Amino acid sequence: MSPFEDLSQTVENFSGEVRLFPLPDLVLFPHVLQPLHVFEPRYRRLLEDALADDRLIAMSLLKPGWEQDYEGRPPLYPTACLGRVTAHRQLDDGTYNLLLLGLHRVRLVRELSPRRHYREARAELCDDYVPPLSAAKQKALARRLREAFLKALPLLPDAKEQLEELVDGDVPLGTLTDLVSYVLDLEPGQKHQLLAEVNVWRRASLLLEHLSAAEQAGSDLAAAGFPPQFSSN
């Protein structure tokens, strides 16, 4: 088993309830380490509760129109990514910097009634599904994805070298699709579509469609940098 698979599937003592950290412009994927800067009081409380318990936080995406009710409970997309806080530091002003490791897709079953300053939900773990394809078809699809991704890499020597080493390595296709989906500068709704797709081959095909459409349109899909910069709530 790949080290990526070992790491991504580690969800210990999952209770079926998640602390929700919704943002309008960030979609976390399994296998990815995301820096976050947490400053809102409700999310500082969320982090403190997570650190005192299982260190798990579910990153969810706000649907369009969230601006009208940001301080309340604006609608969320139904799939989120469960992550574990791997490192954190409280700053002098009481805010936090942290690293959140994406672990597993979750489907938000229902949101819980308000009982804390932040939002919570019942959630189900969503495992990847790999349809039975021939070894030749698997290799062909993985090769197409790698080739398309390498063409879309930013002209940043350090980032390009790191990512080329990654995609040329022995990385499972499901993991590769998550890493590529995260790094590319797609619209948040497009990223959620990729996060929500548990069928690995459909996810890879969908990602190839995004890459092909952007190439034909002459768009720059490359992210601003890799590894990612801190994201603020």
What can you tell me about this protein's structure?
By secondary structure, the protein is an alpha+beta fold. It has two domains: 125 residues, Roll (Archaeosine Trna-guanine Transglycosylase, Chain: A, domain 4), CATH 2.30.130.40; 83 residues. 36% of the residues lie in helices and 24% in strands. Helix 3 packs parallel to helix 5, helix 3 runs parallel beside helix 7 and helix 5 packs parallel to helix 7. The two termini are 35 Å apart. The model has no long low-confidence stretch (mean pLDDT 83).
Number of strands: 7
Supply the number of helical segments.
7
Please state the CA-atom Rg, rounded to the nearest Å.
18 Å
The helicity comes to 25-40%
Task: Let me know the average pLDDT.
Answer: 83
Strand and helix order? HEEHEEEEHHHHHE
Features:
single chain, 233 residues, alpha+beta, Archaeosine Trna-guanine Transglycosylase, Chain: A, domain 4, 2 domains, globular
